DNA sequence: TTGAAAGCGGTACCAG
DNA sequence: CTGGTACCGCTTTCAA
C-alpha cells in the first residue's frame, strides 16, 4: 500500500507555484474557483458591495439581486480563512469531550451544535480520550484556528492547558462538573452529590450492604467524584464500603460483568450494587442473569446517566438522570452571552468572562434519581 | 434570559476599530497575542526564518533554538487562517455522518481522526441527522473553510450537494455504501448483500417464517438496502416476507419493542426476526422477555452492526459485524493517497481523484455473520 | 448607497 | 541558510 513508506509525513508540503494557480482558466472542474472579485466584475459592482450583500448589510435591493445572481451563476463560495484573517474574527467554536463514542457526550455536542450553529458558529470537535496530555495538544491545535469560544469537559486540566486557555482570552466553559475554581465559567453538577443521593435512595429502599463498581483510571474525574460521593454517604449511613475498581474509561457495557464478579467474590452477601454508569449497570445485570441471580430480588443494581439502555433493559434500570443535551445547550447559551457582552461593550477584543463577572458564571444542572425496576 | 430577545442573530457584527486592536499593549491577558513578527524581532531574525522553524524546514540548529526560545517565551501560536490564505492550503478535512450519537458512526469518525490527525489535518465534523437538505447546508458551510478532502456517508445526496462536491475539486469519499456511481471514491460494502447473508444464515438454521423490522423513513438508505436484501433472499428461499416498518432513524433501542409487537400481532407464528440494527434487536429481545417468550427457543432474533450491546446482552445477539472504525481509517488512507497523488504530480491544484483513476477507487469493506446465542 | 485603498498574518519566491 | 518582497482573498475604514 502506498502509505506504508511514509505513513505520518505531513501532507501537502510540495506546492503549486503561485503564478500557476489560475493556469487552467477553461471552464472545467479544474478551473480555479471564483473569487469575490469575479462576482463583483460579473455584477458590475465593487468587491465591497459583494461583501455587503453576503453579510446582509445595507445594499439597494436592485443591486443586491444583481449580485446574488452573479453569485449563483458562478457558484461562488466565500473563503472563510480570508474573512477571518481580515476581520480578526473566526467563525469557530471549540469543544473538547473525553469520548465521542459515549452517548452522554455526543448528546452534549449535539446540544452545543443546536445552540451555536444558528449563530453561524462552526464547531471544532475534539476527542481527548480521557487523556490530559492529548487534551493539551488538541487545545493547542485548535487555538491556531482562533476559536471565538471554547467548551471543554471537566475541571481537571494540565497547567499548560489552563495557561493556554486563559491567554486565549476568549470565553471558556467547563462542562459536566462544577470546579471550585473554574477557568472562566462552568455548566455542570456535582457528581459526588448526585452519587450520594443514589446511596440515600438505596438505603431508603432498605439495602444495607451496598457495593460500588467503577473504573480504575485516575483520569476519569467524574467517575472518581461519584466514588467519593458513594464513600461519603455510605459512611454517613453507618455502612461499610465495598468498592471494586476495574478497567479503563470510558466505561462500557463490557465493564459490568467482571466487576460484578469481583464484587461478589469479595463480598458475597452484597445486596445492592451502585455502578459508575448505566453501561456498567447493564453489563452487571446481564451477568446476574447468567449467574442465576434475580434483579432486584437477589441483588439490586443502579446505574448513572439515564442512557437509553436503562429504559429499555429488562428489568428497567434505576439511575440518575442528567440532561446531557441540556448541558450542551446551556453551555452554548453561556458562551453566546459572553460573546455578546464582550462584543457590545467597549470593543476590547477577546476578553474572557471572568474579567467581567467573576462569580455567577456557574450554571447548575439538575439531576434526579429515576426509580425503576432494578433497584 | 438575556438570549430571548434575539436568539438567532449572528454573533460579532459589532466590531473593534482596526487601530484599537493593539490598544492595550501592557502585559496582561488582554494584550493582543504575539505575531510572527514579534517572535522574529525577539529572536533577531526575519519572519521567514520563524516560518521555516515552524514548518520544520532547513534552518541552522543554533538559529532554530533561538527562534524556539522566543516562541516559547511569548507563547506564540501561529494563526492557521493566515497560513491557509497565504499558502492556498487549509489544514481541514470535512466529515459528514448521519448521527454522531450512533456508535457506528462515531467509531468511523474516530478511525478517520486516527488516520488524518498525524498528518496535521483537523476534522470538521458534521451531523446530518439523516437529512439530505441539512447535509447540503453543512457541505456548503464546510466548503467555506476550503477543506483538503471530504468524507461523507452514503450514496444518496441532493444534486446540489453533488455539484458542490464536484466543483470543490478535492478528493471525496462516500462511506458505508458502494454507490454505482460514486462522486469520486467509496469505502463501504453492500448492505443488501450483507442482509441476504443473514437471511441465508437463519434459513440454514432451519427458520422458515422470518420477519424483518426496520425504520419507516425513506431517508435511511442503508436501512432500506438491508430491507431490500432481506426481500430478495426471502424470495429466493421460497419464503414469504413479513415486514414491519416503524419509526425514524436513527433506530434506537426503543424501536425494538413496538416493532416486535406489531410483527407478532400480524404474523403470530413468526419463528425468527431479523432487525435492521442491533439496537432494535436488543429492544426486541427485551420485549420477548416481557412477553414470556424465550430467545431463541420460542423466537430467534438477529441484529446488524455488532454493537457492544450484541456482545453483552443475555442472550448474546447474532449479528453482522462491520468494522466501523476500519471504514474510518481506510477512508482516511484513501484520502491521503489522493492528496499525495494530486500534490506530487504536475502541481495542478485541487484535482479530484476520479480525473486520475476512474475505477479502482472503491474499497470494499468485509462483513461477517457472527453466530451467537439469540439465533 | 457605493467604491478605493490599506492591511489582516502568514508563505512563496527569488536573490544573496 | 537567510532575508526582502509580493501577495493570498477578504473586511475595514474613510471618502464620495
TrEMBL record, chains A, B:
Listed Polar residues bias regions: 1-18
Domain of life where this protein originates: Bacteria
Domain HTH lacI-type residue range list: 34-87
Keywords: DNA-binding, Transcription, Transcription regulation
Start and end residues of each stretch annotated as Disordered: 1-32
GO molecular function terms listed in the Swiss-Prot or TrEMBL record: DNA-binding transcription factor activity; transcription cis-regulatory region binding
Pfam families reported for this sequence: LacI, Peripla_BP_3
PANTHER family attached to this UniProt entry: LACI-RELATED TRANSCRIPTIONAL REPRESSOR, TRANSCRIPTIONAL REGULATOR
Protein name: Transcriptional regulator, LacI family
UniProt organism field: Paraburkholderia phymatum (strain DSM 17167 / CIP 108236 / LMG 21445 / STM815)
Amino acid at each position: 500500500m502506498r502509505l506504508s513508506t511514509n505513513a505520518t509525513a505531513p501532507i501537502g508540503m510540495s506546492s503549486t507555484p503561485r503564478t500557476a494557480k489560475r493556469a487552467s482558466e477553461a471552464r472545467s472542474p479544474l478551473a480555479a474557483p471564483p473569487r469575490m472579485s469575479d462576482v463583483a466584475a460579473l455584477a458590475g459592482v465593487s468587491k465591497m458591495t459583494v461583501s455587503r450583500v453576503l453579510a446582509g448589510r445595507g445594499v439597494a435591493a436592485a443591486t443586491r439581486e444583481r449580485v446574488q445572481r452573479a453569485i449563483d451563476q458562478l457558484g461562488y463560495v466565500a473563503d472563510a480563512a480570508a474573512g477571518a484573517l481580515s476581520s480578526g474574527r473566526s467563525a469557530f467554536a471549540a469543544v473538547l469531550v473525553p469520548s465521542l463514542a459515549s452517548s452522554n457526550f455526543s448528546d452534549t455536542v449535539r446540544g452545543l451544535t443546536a445552540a451555536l450553529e444558528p449563530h453561524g458558529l462552526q464547531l471544532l470537535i475534539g476527542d481527548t480520550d480521557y487523556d490530559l496530555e492529548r487534551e493539551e495538544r488538541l487545545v493547542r491545535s485548535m487555538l491556531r484556528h482562533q476559536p471565538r469560544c471554547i467548551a471543554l469537559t471537566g475541571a481537571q486540566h494540565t497547567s499548560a492547558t489552563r495557561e493556554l486557555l486563559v491567554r486565549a482570552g476568549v470565553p471558556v466553559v467547563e462542562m459536566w462538573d462544577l470546579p471550585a475554581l473554574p477557568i472562566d465559567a462552568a455548566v455542570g453538577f456535582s457528581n459526588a452529590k448526585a452519587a450520594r443521593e443514589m446511596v440515600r435512595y438505596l438505603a431508603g429502599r432498605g439495602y444495607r450492604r451496598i457495593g460500588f463498581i467503577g473504573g480504575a483510571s485516575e483520569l476519569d474525574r467524574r467517575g472518581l467524584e461519584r466514588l467519593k460521593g458513594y464513600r461519603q454517604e455510605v459512611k454517613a449511613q453507618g455502612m461499610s464500603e465495598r468498592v471494586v475498581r476495574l478497567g479503563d474509561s470510558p466505561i462500557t457495557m463490557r465493564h459490568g460483568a467482571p466487576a460484578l464478579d469481583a464484587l461478589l467474590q469479595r463480598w458475597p452477601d452484597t445486596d445492592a450494587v451502585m455502578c459508575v454508569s448505566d453501561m456498567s449497570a447493564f453489563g452487571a445485570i446481564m451477568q446476574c442473569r447468567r449467574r442465576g441471580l434475580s434483579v432486584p430480588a437477589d441483588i439490586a443494581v443502579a446505574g448513572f446517566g439515564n442512557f437509553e439502555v436503562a429504559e429499555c433493559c429488562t428489568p428497567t434500570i434505576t439511575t440518575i438522570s442528567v440532561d446531557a443535551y441540556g448541558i450542551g445547550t446551556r453551555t452554548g447559551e453561556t458562551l453566546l452571552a459572553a460573546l455578546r457582552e464582550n462584543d457590545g461593550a467597549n470593543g476590547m477584543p477577546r476578553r474572557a468572562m471572568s474579567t467581567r463577572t467573576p462569580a455567577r458564571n456557574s450554571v447548575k444542572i439538575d439531576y434526579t434519581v429515576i426509580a425503576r425496576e432494578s433497584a
